[in-house]
């Protein structure tokens, strides 16, 4: 599977940009972890973090980690400072591949579509710079400057959990689009579907007597309500097949797998 490295900037003895008690390193870690979780929950990919706690990590260690693991993409997360406002992205200002340029275009537009009009975030544009993490990575790389810690409105957004979630998910979605990552497929084992909820309850109780846990999921099909008895949901097709066999061995011959 593709390997994405997420790099929360600064950390440990290096707070990054500071505004009173607010430190860049804390925001970058929060965003980075949410990007990781979004990618792992929704796409077939592996994610490697340069840090997952408040630890000091050198610039060389960050790029060495990505290079030694032959990562497919590197995304560095930062918070800006210096009196401006808004969101911007960077790639290396030297020679880069078309893939790097295309990825920046995709990630930038995906993020701005998510946070621009909804939160009034200014688009500061797609830029290029000679940053270490962009220059020394062997793979395509991007650095994101996520608002300004020293701008009052930007800081309000950085302290808004809904904004941080929307921003992080948009970054994750942008990376997924840029790398053409495959969506994760969830394989649900359906052990019966009934119009009468009591029948679904009976099936659930029967499965429980056989040592098989299940839940009842209400769905609407062509305007009608059905009660599905779901005996597990798996990202692994093999695990779903194993559970299906267990359900059928318990006497539920019409059980099936619903993928989606």
TrEMBL record:
Family matches, as PROSITE patterns: SPOR (PS51724)
Domain SPOR as annotated: residue spans: 181-259
Keywords tagged on the record: Hydrolase
Pfam families: Amidase_3, SPOR
Record InterPro entries: MurNAc-LAA_cat, N-acetylmuramoyl_amidase_3, SPOR-like_dom, SPOR-like_sf
SUPFAM superfamilies according to UniProt: Sporulation related repeat, Zn-dependent exopeptidases
An annotated Gene Ontology molecular function: peptidoglycan binding
One GO biological process term: peptidoglycan catabolic process
An annotated GO cellular component: outer membrane-bounded periplasmic space
Stated name of the protein: N-acetylmuramoyl-L-alanine amidase
Species name: Planifilum fulgidum
């Amino acid at each position: 599977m593709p390997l994405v490295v997420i790099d929360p900037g600064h950390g440990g003895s290096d707070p990054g940009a500071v505004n009173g008690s607010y430190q860049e390193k804390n925001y970058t870690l929060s965003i980075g972890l949410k990007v990781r979780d979004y990618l792992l929950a929704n796409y077939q990919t592996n994610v490697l973090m340069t840090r997952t706690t408040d630890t000091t990590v050198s610039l060389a260690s960050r790029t060495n980690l990505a290079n030694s693991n032959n990562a497919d993409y590197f995304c560095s997360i930062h918070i800006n400072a210096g009196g401006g406002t808004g969101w911007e992205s960077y790639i290396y200002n030297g020679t880069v591949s078309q893939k790097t340029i295309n990825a920046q275009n995709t990630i930038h537009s995906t993020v701005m579509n998510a946070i621009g009009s909804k939160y009034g975030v200014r688009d500061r544009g797609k830029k290029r710079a000679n940053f270490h993490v962009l220059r020394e990575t062997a793979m395509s790389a991007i650095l994101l400057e996520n608002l300004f810690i020293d701008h009052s409105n930007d800081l309000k957004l950085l302290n808004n959990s809904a904004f941080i979630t929307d921003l992080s998910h948009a970054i994750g979605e942008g990376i997924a689009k840029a790398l053409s990552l495959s969506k994760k497929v969830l394989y649900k084992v359906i052990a019966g579907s009934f119009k009468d909820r009591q029948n679904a309850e009976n099936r659930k109780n029967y499965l429980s007597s056989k040592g098989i846990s299940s839940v009842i999921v209400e769905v609407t099909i062509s305007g009608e309500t059905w009660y599905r008895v779901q005996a597990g949901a798996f990202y692994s097709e093999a695990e779903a097949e194993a559970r299906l066999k267990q359900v059928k061995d318990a006497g539920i011959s019409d059980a099936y797998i619903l993928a989606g």
